[in-house]
Amino acid sequence: MRLAWLELRRRPGKFSVAVVTLTVLAALLLFLAGLLDGLFLGSTGALRAQRADVFVYSSTSRDSFLRSTITPDTRAAVEAVQGVDAVGGLSVTLLGAVVPGETELADVAVIGYELQPSGIPRPSGPGQAWADERLKGFGVGQGDTLLVGPAKTPITVVGFVADSNFQLQGGLWVQTDTWRQVQNQNRPDAPSAAGDVQVLLVQASPGQDAALLADRIDASTRVTSSLTKAEAENSLPGTKEQRTTFNSILATTYMVVVVIVALFFALLTLERTPLYGMLKAIGASSRQLFVGVILQAIIIATVAFAIGGGLVAALSAAAPPKLPLQVQASRIFTSYVILAVCAVIGSLLSLRRVSRIDPAQAIGTAQ
Amino acid sequence: MFLALREIQRAKVRFILLVLAIGLLVFLVLFQIGLRDGLIGQFIGALRHQSAPVVVFDVQARKNIEGSRIDAGTQAALAQVSGVGRIGRLGESTFTVSNAVSRARATPKDQLVDAVLFGYEVTGPAAGLGAPTTLSKGHMPAGINEAVASERNRADGFDIGDVIHIEPGGADITVVGLAADINYSVSPTLFVSWDTFEAAKRVRNPDATAVLPSVMAVEPAAGVSVGVLVANLAAVPGVVPLSRADAVAQSPGVASVSQSLNTVIGLLVITALMVIGLFILILTVQKSASLTLMRAIGAHRRTLALTLVLQTTVVVLAGVIVGGAMMAAISPLLNSIGVSFDLVQLLVVGAGAIVVGWVGSLGAVLRVLRIEPINATVPQGMLR
Fold first, then answer.
1. DSSP letter at B81?
2. Is the ipTM beyond the 0.90 threshold?
3. Between residues 8 and 27 of chain A, which touch chain B (CB distance below 8 Å)?
């Protein structure tokens, strides 16, 4: 162990190849992970904030907010289902908005809500909204009146909330009636009748299983398609595909890490064969030598990850606010652990070569 | 030259690992390029392959056809603009539909699928403006409830003769033609007459006070260029006119997807450059004593350098073959997201990888060129 550490300290240049290569790979991994998280969190904030167990859509909507309509009759039917504690509507309209003093339009999601979500105050007055902090990047300030959609419906921002966006558009949280006004003025081809909402959120009675309650609601109403909260988050267009695609890229990149570390340590072991032979001759065991190799692999991975993380942090700071790059602490930790494990796996490929070194033969080679 | 190949043969593990690393990197680059092109193609193929040279968006939509609506007053104002030859409505919307294939599925939820409808003028002065340009089979819709479908989805119940039912309780639309690369939002896509589109919109929204076109499809008058027409149309308040190419390039998502995936591809190329360059350099340093000896017994600098270049080329070529084989093997599973194996793309990436390999091996080549034969006669350590 000590020998491995001393070698790293005294001849760091020898390890620079692996460190530099792994640094780029670590940066790539964090960048991809940041994009994946940014896309998911930016799309689903409005749903994750909900304190609801079940999301009820109309059965032919294919779980799309924009295609779903829950009428007052359906709402009453859902309320009557056993295990339903409370219900509230949730409706969304995606539009552009004119921000006072700005030339660029802001992308907004006008969200009409009834049940109070986590981190968002109760609905403000008519024509007023809680805005997501993302909109600050478009120049939106407290007290600003935004002109929303082609009909330029005025909405005044009364304060800011965090992580509440929908489909990467800045959330504007309003009363359901204000949402309806926005929808009907700006989307005459898809008006919302009084009492209608797009989706019904259901809070289950204590002890109720959400999946079972969803099935019970659908069986009872026969005109709804109900999802648990996690299912609703994943049902947003593209969310599942994004995750599958990015995860497969991440997995392949981790494989590259394994191969590169294996290649590096294979070369290093080859170079050190005489040295290892000498060490074995004076009593070092294969196990001791190998622990040193693993330690070096972990330190290389740690240094590379730290530098790669710094690069991504710098990139994130310099990137335009619209680039959905968001690296979570849990993601950083997981990425580091996987990178370190991959480095260890890569170094393990030298195990056979290290254990096969014959002291006598190795000393002979060194002569 | 045989030296290069013989060394590879004798140090299999080292070179196999290097080939594997390059192969994985080539695979990742091919995958990213395929993903970028596939996603972009499937996201906005319908916009790219419709016939109108100019499309006019509502400024509020920020160049997103899904969020754009052109009201009647603006439609009239656009028609009056100088340089406009023909102008027609083009609507886009996603619908819930069913067909024979979907209805055969077991669960009620799976029996419904998404489809994007593009409604364009089939009759009248603007007939054919906004129609798909890549018809591969059948014919264009001649009237109501006929459609040209995206060729990619023919096996999903969107082939010629298949009937698509607009849910809930809407019209039955018959597929009369197929066109290539006309998907939108990665969904099955149908080009139908404006009347069919309007009727489908009213199924979901019976109380709609008006069904507005998403964009206006415009063709310049004889002798008027697309650029001049776009400039003239821009004078109408509240609209953003774009040429077809600009509408595609500036579609929301296209720029950010390209930017993100190009960054990833750039990082992968840098990684490949370093993997090849640094590892070839290590190998060269490891065998520098042998190379010096070879120089001392008469081997030419050029011979040794060419040996190194040949070795790099062989290793990279093997990596390209490994990466290409992985891509070919996995691509059938990725058809749903538009990623496919493209031999031409592999050749381009392969050629690029070889150049990257040569650039990467430059450091090692320079080191070989600097080897002095005299050093072979000096005990190791004396020259340090």
1. S
2. no
3. 17, 20-21, 24-25, 27
